[in-house]
Write a structure and sequence with these properties.
- It comes from Microbacterium azadirachtae.
- By secondary structure, the protein is of the alpha+beta class.
- Among the domains are: 41 residues; 36 residues, no CATH class.
- It contains 3 helices and 4 strands.
- The protein starts with 19 loop residues before the first helix and ends with a helix.
């Protein structure tokens, strides 16, 4: 005879005398709608007795992944991703040698003043 596990045949593992009311399915809840920048709506449920300050104003929309707010007319803006910069673009942004020397001189002067070496 082959047996597997400790469960008694015909029962669910972990089941017990608890019903839905014991799991909180019948607790009073309020529905809050959230909208993302694309106009998608999602509804979240919170306990009815939860203070207003504990209900989040912004969540991540589960389908689009964008931030979603409670104001339908003014949802959070879609984040604008900056384009990838090449190494050459960073090199072009570097300061000239004269500017670098001036910045270094200013920083050294401030350090000397702080130490009192003036």
């Amino acid at each position: 005879m082959a047996t597997g596990g400790n469960a008694i045949r015909g029962t669910r593992v972990g089941s017990g005398p608890m019903g839905e009311q014991d799991h909180g399915y019948h607790a009073d809840r309020i529905a809050i709608s959230y909208w993302d920048g694309l106009g998608n709506e999602t509804v979240r449920y919170f306990a009815a007795g939860l203070p207003e300050e504990e209900i989040p104003d912004i969540i991540d929309h589960p389908h689009s992944g964008l931030p979603a707010g409670r104001d339908k007319e003014n949802p959070p803006e879609i984040a604008k991703a900056e384009p990838y910069k090449t190494h050459l673009a960073y090199v072009k942004e570097r300061r000239t040698d004269e500017e670098a020397e001036q910045l270094l001189g200013d920083a050294l002067a401030q350090l000397r003043e702080r130490r009192g070496q003036g």
